[in-house]
Write a sequence for this structure.
C-alpha cells in the first residue's frame, strides 16, 4: 500500500477532520529556502490544541519518507500555543 505524501494537500484536510479552527495557510516565496508554508490554526481548548498536535505528529511519522527530517515541537509546557516544525 502506498501512503499519501505528508504535504499541504494532506495536512489541511487532516486539520479539518480534527476540528481545527481558523485554518490559515501562508505560502512563502521561493527565496525562503527553509520553509514552503506556515499553517496557523486555533483549537477550542488547551486539550484540543495538544491533541491536534500529537495527532499531526503521529500522522507525520506514519506518512514521512526515510529522507524526511525529524520534527520539533515548541511550547509543550504552555497552555495557549504550540509550534511544530516538520522540517
Amino acid at each position: 500500500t502506498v501512503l499519501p505524501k505528508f504535504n499541504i494537500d494532506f495536512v489541511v484536510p487532516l486539520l479539518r477532520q480534527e476540528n481545527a479552527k481558523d485554518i490559515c495557510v501562508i505560502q512563502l516565496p521561493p527565496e525562503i529556502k527553509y520553509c514552503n508554508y506556515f499553517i496557523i490554526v486555533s483549537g477550542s481548548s488547551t486539550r484540543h490544541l495538544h491533541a491536534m498536535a500529537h495527532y499531526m505528529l503521529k500522522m507525520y511519522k506514519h506518512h514521512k519518507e526515510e529522507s524526511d527530517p525529524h520534527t520539533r515541537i515548541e511550547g509543550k509546557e504552555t497552555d495557549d500555543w504550540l509550534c511544530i516544525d516538520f522540517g
Summary: Residues 60 and 84 are 11 Å apart (CA to CA). Residues 46-63 form the longest helix (18 residues).
